[in-house]
Every structure is written in C-alpha cells, then in structure tokens.
Amino acid sequence: MNLPEVIRKQLEEDYREGRLLPGQTIDEKALALRFKTSRTPVREALLLLSAYGLIDIQPRAGTFVRKLKASELVAMMEALGELEAVLARLATQRIDAQKREELMTSLQQTQQAADNNAVTSYIEANARLHEVIYRASGNPYLVTQAKLVRLRISGYRRQLFAAPGRLAQSQQEHRLVVEAILTGHANEAYELMRAHISAGGQAFADLILTNEF
After folding, report:
1. What is the pTM of this model?
2. Which of 93, 14, 86, 73 lies closest to 49, judged by CA?
3. Does residue 211 register a pLDDT over 60?
4. CA torsion angle 191 193 194 199 (round to 10)
5. In the chain, what's the furthest Cα-to-Cα distance?
C-alpha cells in the first residue's frame, strides 16, 4: 500500500472514530508532520477522500470534512436500506456453518453492549455483525457499495446511537434479522433488514428535526 493510501485509510478511521468531525478544517501541514512526509502524498489522499464524498476542497477557502445536508443523510439511509436488505436475503441463501457461528457470536456481542448501554462497544459490535452478513452474501460488489454509504454517514452515527433507547431498539431489530437468516427465511430477512435501516433513517430525521446536526 502506497503512502497516499495509508493516509487515506487512517483519515477514514479518524472519521469513523469521531476524531474528524463534519465541518472540521483539514490542515495539510499538520497531516504532513503527522505522517512524516511532504504535502504531496497528503494532497493525493485528500483527493481520494474528495472522490468518496468525505472531503470538500475549496480553492482559496480551505479543505474541510464534508458536512452532509439533512436531505443527503436521509437519502443515503434509504439507499443503504435497500442495499443491506438485498445482502441479508443473499446471506440467508448462502450462509455456511462457520458464518452462522460468527453471526450468533456477533449478536451476543451487540446484546452485551446494548445491555451495558455502551455506545462505542455497540458501534464496534454492530459493524462486526453487519460484516458477517456482508461476507455471507457472497456479493462483493454490493458490499462495496454498502460500505461506501456506511463510511459517508459514519461521522453521524455516534450521535444516532447515543439517542435514548436507540441501542435497545437496534438490538431487537438485529435479533429479528439474525433469526430470519438462520432459519432460512430470505424474504423475511430482506424486509426486516430494510426496516432496521429505515428505523435508523427515522432516528436521523428525528435528530435533524431537534437540531442535533
């Protein structure tokens, strides 16, 4: 992996973890010092992130973490719901014994985090659960599209999961999806996953209406 890719991946991780926030200014000089390099690889990494829709590069104004409009967030959640619903249906049809075990383990981990109201742990366990479904689907193209949408909204998800009662609700939705996958009900898994993501979209809309974004 070349240096611009290394920088890109680290900045993506910073965004997921809340170390880079929507609207925040990107300091090229500080990044060059951080990665012990010239500004050229930093600029290449930022161009890649701009192509992914994570960074706004504004001539003479600066470089910023892109701040999504409310309409964009809602539209992305709608698209993610359709993508993940198809992936859940495919996973139901294609899941093997090993991934069944992984899926049950992931569900136990999200349950533990939800019971403890541990937002960070829940976000991590949630990502693992969805990753198992992605791999079980056997469709890397759809997975790539879903992951790109998830990356673009990840800077907002911590606030979403911090909403009162959201962890418990999300976990109940997970349980129903996993049950449908493990019992071979592909169409039910599709509908339940779409409903799960749609519930997250509604939670986004509620936060937007209360001026949390």
Report:
1. 0.86
2. 14
3. no
4. 120
5. 57
